[in-house]
Each structure stands twice: as C-alpha cells, then as structure tokens.
Amino acid sequence: MTSEESNSVESVIIIGAGPAGFSAAIYAARADLSPLIFTGTQLGGQAALTDRIENYPGFPEGVGGAELAELFQKNAERFGARFEYDVVTSVDLSKRPFSVNTYSKSFKANVLIIATGASPNKLNIPGENEFLGRGVSYCATCDGWFFKDKEVIVVGGGDSALEEGMFLTRYASSVKIIHRRDELRAGAILQKRAINNPKIEFIWDSVVTEVIGNEAVEKVRLKNVKSGEISELAADGFFVFIGHTPNTELFKSQLDLDQKGYIVVDERTQASIPGVYAAGEASDPRYRQVITSAGMGAASAIEATRLLESESD
User: Fold this and answer.
1) What is residue 31's three-state secondary structure?
2) Of the listed 51, 86, 139, 205, which one is catalytic?
3) Is 149 a catalytic residue?
4) Known catalytic residue: 266?
5) Over the stretch 235-271, which tens digit does the pLDDT of each residue have?
6) Which helix (H) or strand (E) holds 67?
7) How far, in Å, CA of 124 to CA of 239, rounded?
8) Which residue of the set 32, 86, 143, 258 is catalytic?
9) How far, CA to CA in Å, does 285 sit from each of 22, 25, 167, 214?
10) What pLDDT is recorded for position 244?
11) What percent of the chain has pLDDT over 90?
C-alpha cells in the first residue's frame, strides 16, 4: 500500500528513461499529452553506462552515453514531459485507467508505455564491475571501435557470442572466444564462419574467474573446468555475451511474455492489453541498439496518441 495516491489520471505514463523511454516522452510531449516518466535507478538506461556511442546519427565524433541521456531529457522537458525520479514497484493492468505504484505514491494512467530495458547477464567475477567501460563491455557494436588493433576476449558459446565475436574482428587484431564446454551452442552456419575466421581462436572447457588490470583491463585469469588448471591470458578488452534478461518482472502475470521474458508486441508495439505499449529492449531481443530502441519509443508514443485521439472523438 502506497502512502500517497494521485487523484488525477495521467494521459500517458512511461516506465523507464533509456532511449526508448526518452523518445516516447519526446513524441508524447509534442502531442501535448504531458507524459509522466518514471526514471527508475538508471537515468539513460544501459546506454548511459557506455563511455562513448559512435553509431548514433548526428554525432560524427561520437557522444558519451550519459551526455546523450542528458540531451534526450532536455529535449523531452522542452516540450512538457515530466520526470519522477522514482522506482515503480507494481502495476495493475486489469482495468483502465491502469494503476502504477511507486514506493511512495500511486498513479493512474490511460496509456502505459513500458521501456524498462534489459540487463546483460554478468559473470559476477572480481574485476568485472570495476573495469566496466575500461575494457569490460557487453556490446561489441557499441564499443568495438575502441579496440582497433587490440587483443580482445569474448566469453560465450551461443549465437550472440559468435556474432559479436566476428563483428569484433573488424577492429581487433585477435579475438579469443572462451567457452566452458568443448562444443558450441550456436547455429551450424555461425560456427563454420567463426571457426574459419583467421582472427578467431577458441579456448575450450574454460571459465574466466577474474578480470585483472590497473587503469584498464590487462589480462584475465582462467580455470580449465576439466583439469582445474589455472592460467592467465593477456587482453585489452573483455566482452561478455551470455545473454540478456529483460526487466519485465513487474508484468509477468499480466502481459504476454515470450519464453525469455520479453514482452510480446504487435507491429504497432502494443502489448497483449489494449492501451499498453512496450518499446526498446524490454520487447526487443534482436537488435538492442540505441537507435532501434529510440525508434520503437517514438512508434509507441505515436500509437498511444492515436488511441487517445480515437477515444476522444
């Protein structure tokens, strides 16, 4: 039970302030819907943790993730978007207006746009968090450019690990893929391409137990799961691709989710309940890019506007 409840009904509430949430806020605000955005604990989402984003249009020299988030927010606020620096703890989607609860308040909304993102799965080993942005990364497309002519390590054995590993060969001098088993889980075609790539080397039956460095990543400590042998391997970059977990726990019993927990949406970004839309990595297991998330956020806001307009006729 929240301690305070808002009596008014918001036209649009947006949960999440990453690229999808910010873009939804800009479009909804420009439609004079005065959207209310709950930022959660990470303003800017995962993108804000990226030291430099090189592939977002309009920034030929690149832009810092936190800086881009600040620009997104200013853009949204200029048109009348409002931000609540609070965490949504529960929602009730059983009827409209929908209920959105935080630690201190309860709100109602005619339309809900979910932009809660997804979190990369981590190894949870010493040094992983300490060197985030200083050699440790979870996105080759975001950070690969920084490792031109460098030696990098990739952890994983599925499709994403091989795809991202091959992408890294565009920049890195060598890519060592470490897998805890002696065979890959990736598709046969991907396996063939990776194995035949002269820049890629596989290290089998091994796990990384520690990331080591001073100012940045310098090496990792390995353990062979069969022999127990401990060794160290020099590297300038350390990429982890062992999957993502969408931040959709709040909606598990109320919306249709796929087997991995991503919100199922139609071509209009609408979820399984009319009036609920989902954008960005909460509903996108495929692309996971700043620009695609921003596009989905814009689409959600456009669809929300059309819905509200049709209901007011």
Assistant:
1) coil
2) 139
3) no
4) no
5) 999 999 998 899 999 999 999 999 999 999 999 999 9
6) helix 65-78
7) 13
8) 143
9) 19, 22, 18, 34
10) 85
11) 81
